[in-house]
Amino acid sequence: MPGDINGDGRLFGGQLMQWIDIVAAVVARRHSGRDVTTACIDRLEFLHPALVNSTLTLIGRITYVGRTSMEVRVDSFVEALSGERHLVNVAYLVMVAIDEKGNPAVVPALAPETAEEQALFEAGRERARLRKARTAGA
């Protein structure tokens, strides 16, 4: 949309952030079966710009779960007409499942099945530990 593009012909970073948050929420809702809220954007790394008329593809997946929270990684790609994809953004968000009263709700465990999923899970566990340490020190 024209309103999503800045004067340099690039997608506004804030617009991409909004879409990333939506994707993370959809992924977390599917995993938990509950409504969710964004607790934290742990990391958001802009690697390359998304230019006007680019096709943008966002792919999210759960990388780690706690008792009531889920870490979601969202990769954003610019896709050429040939189908070739180029990574433009990587983001990690923490989503919390909520019950009907708006209180945190327990989420299903995550069972990594491949070596890649296990590596993502272990890295997510470490990020969760670091987030807790930052919060404790605040």
UniProtKB/TrEMBL annotation:
Q: Which GO terms describe its biological process?
A: acyl-CoA metabolic process; fatty acid catabolic process
Instruction: Tell me which residues make up the HotDog ACOT-type domain.
Output: 1-101
Q: Which GO terms describe its cellular component?
A: cytosol
- The superkingdom listed in its UniProt entry is Bacteria
InterPro entries for this protein: Cytosol_ACT (IPR040170), HOTDOG_ACOT (IPR033120), HotDog_dom_sf (IPR029069), Thioestr_dom (IPR006683)
Gene Ontology molecular function terms on file: long-chain fatty acyl-CoA hydrolase activity
Sorted alphabetically, which CDD domains does this protein's record hold?
Answer: BFIT_BACH
Q: What is this protein called?
A: Acyl-CoA thioesterase
Q: Which organism is it from?
A: Candidatus Ornithocaccomicrobium faecavium
